[in-house]
Write a structure and sequence with these properties.
Structural class: alpha/beta
Distance between the termini: 36 Å
CATH architecture of the largest domain: 3-Layer(aba) Sandwich
Largest sheet: 6 strands, parallel
Mean pLDDT: 88
Low-confidence stretches: none
CATH class of the largest domain: Alpha Beta
Radius of gyration: 17 Å
Oligomer: single chain
Strand order of the largest sheet: 2-1-3-4-5-6
Number of strands: 6
CATH superfamily of the largest domain: Response regulator
Length: about 210
């Protein structure tokens, strides 16, 4: 029997929560274990229920999704947050990624694509809606000169690992592709994060795509 992915839905609109719950209940490998109507409740429920993935809206009362994501990552660093919002602009996307969101999807995403995004972030892969990509690249281009110099600080093997991260592969898969141990991959990943001054795999993947490693 396969283990289900436990999902917590955080959105201040009851209709949205009901719609997501109705659809996700049809997925054999996903179990919705809770609903939150604002960021405060999302943090409280996530700490208590321990979901694998939190579907997080951004604009909510009491505490917005960015602040809630930041607080969640402080207390539950391994919990995956997938932003699901209507906002694709840079002012929302960049802070959400910096706060620790693994993925960023818009509410116009096709249902099947949302399911695939949940599977992907559960595996630790980054997932960005195509409409937000240009905004992210625009932000990164403002620091292109500095970032390019940082890319040169990576060893050849670290560049290989970074490329595979951008291709959406897990540490185990990278180890198999590069014929090295998973422990060695973890060391390389840690060095990459440090050298490029990024916080997680999502930011590292964006960096790799921006600089043509994919």
């Amino acid at each position: 029997m396969k283990i289900k992915i436990k999902v917590l839905i955080a959105d201040d609109h009851h209709v949205v929560r009901r719609g997501l719950l109705f659809f996700l209940k049809t997925q054999a490998e996903i179990e919705v274990i809770g609903e939150a109507k604002d960021g405060v409740e999302a943090v409280e429920l996530a700490q208590r229920l321990k979901p694998d993935v939190v579907l997080m809206d951004l604009v909510m009362p009491n505490m917005d999704g960015i602040e809630a994501t930041k607080k969640l990552k402080e207390v539950e660093p391994n919990m995956k947050v997938l932003i699901l919002t209507s906002f694709a602009d840079q002012d929302h996307v960049i802070p959400a990624i910096r706060a620790g969101a693994v993925g960023y999807q818009l509410k116009d995403v096709e249902p099947d694509q949302l399911v695939q995004a949940i599977y992907a972030v559960h595996r630790g892969e980054s997932q960005l809606h195509p409409k937000v990509t240009s905004h992210v690249f625009s932000h990164l281009s403002a620091h292109e000169k500095k970032e390019t110099s940082l890319l040169h600080t990576l060893t050849n093997r670290e560049r290989d690992v970074l490329t595979e991260i951008a291709n959406g592969r897990s540490n185990k898969e990278i180890a198999a592709v590069l014929v090295i141990t998973e422990k060695t991959v973890k060391t390389h990943v840690s060095n990459i994060f440090s050298k490029l001054n990024v916080a997680d795999r999502t930011q590292a993947a964006l960096y790799a795509v921006k600089h043509g490693l994919v």
